[in-house]
Amino acid sequence: MMKLSELQRKNIINIRDGKIVGKIVDVEVDTNSGLLIKLIIEKAHLVRNIFSSEEDITIKFTQIKKLGEDVILIDLN
User: What CATH number did the domain enclosing 70 receive?
Assistant: First the structure.
């Protein structure tokens, strides 16, 4: 079992390029099943695009490849 506060301390890394994507700021949970559906990630400052008005990234549970001790590995296309 893992708490949201523990998830929020982990860096989110994209396995495609090895870059830090950001930190978890929120989660979306299916209220019927209690299962985690999405992670809401605040983009790292280096990842933000000055032309992008969107500051958060939504990661579907299926995009999570590994929950490590210090990082969460995701696959962003």
Answer: 2.30.30.240
